[in-house]
Amino acid sequence: MIRVQQRVFDVGDEQRALLEARRDIGAVVSFTGLVRDFNERPEVQALTLEHYPGMTEAALGDIVEQAQSRWPLQGVTLIHRIGRLAPADPIVLVVVASAHRRAAFEACDFIMDYLKTRAPFWKKEHTASGDYWVSERDGDHDAARRWEMSS
Amino acid sequence: MPLTNPSLTHLNARGEAHMVDVADKPESRREASASGLIRMQPETLALLAEGGLPKGDVLATARIAGIQAAKRTHELIPLCHALALSKVAIDFELDEPESCVHVTATCRLNGRTGVEMEALTAVSVACLTLYDMCKAVDKGMEIGAIHLDTKTGGKSGDYRREEARGERAVTPSFIESAASPIVTGEGASGEVSVGQRGDIAAPCIRVKCLAELRERLGVGDVTVPVDRLASSDVAGLKTALKALDARFEGLDQGRVLCAVNQVMAGDATPLTDNDEVAFFPPVTGG
To answer: Which EC class does it fall in (chain A) (predicted)?
Structure first.
């Protein structure tokens, strides 16, 4: 299940929904990304997430499909928020369910690495000293490349 | 409204339907605004307001649908001419007390025929799209009160609907037709973009600049006629854009990514009529 939305999500609700009526799932891993109050500059007051509707959903769908082809997964929930968010607000949620923990851990990690480098979202941070667009990080690309080498 | 000699212009002397020959009419600046509304359950309106509907960003989608519909009016209404609209603006007003969404469309062009059918079509289709986007949670929604508000230019003169009910003053924010910035976030609606309209009948490539690139270049959406492209690929499009406007030199500054029809692409990706090409900076989500 993939959703792009402005409203907040609840990790517990999403995980329960994914596991509901299932008895074949042995492991569930969830990752939540939050807004920090410091980034390239201190005192981040808010951030605005822009995306490219249509392509966003397609890109996220493709990433989840790739994860499903690499690991035996019983279910994936991927939620990304858009619009204006404040520090401590959750931005992104990945919940991965599998029969065994290793696949769930790795697939969750993989989905976040690919989302960071492939899904068309852009962050603009609003700070005490003005607004700026967040720039890409080399570390994110290095992280995503790990999965290419091992495949 | 000066209705001195009302007659049905779409009927000829024998009472048969015909398309009015507008070749000899002088060109003038034409503008029309229409509005309508869709009533829904208060809970549906609340979900819509907070972006909680299963199909996603409802208003952004309905806005695009309305703009697209205005441009295709001639395909739907038999005796309408195909018009090269210069502006289409769609606005939404969420009305909690009335539990409805008011939809307003304004169309403009310099031409020989009026644009009221385009404005009415845009409102209708935007309302239908709102219905489609929300029907999962509310099947009882009702579309209504679709009507022309104002019309200016042309031989029949200006028209302004009597402000009978509701004194809502709607000031639609203009965005270029073909130029609907698909941006979600703060201050997204009505964002002005600078567009270069090609002849609507000629094959065109629709270009979008997103996020930081849009702000750096000061350009949101542009339509480029296919025959302006030196080569029918992304590289050819970039060359044509730079020839069109020096601001596009910025496409070569820093890392700029490209998607064709919402799939990642490169300079060698071929382009054809009506392709959507987006340029944007490296992504920073998550």
So the answer is: transferase
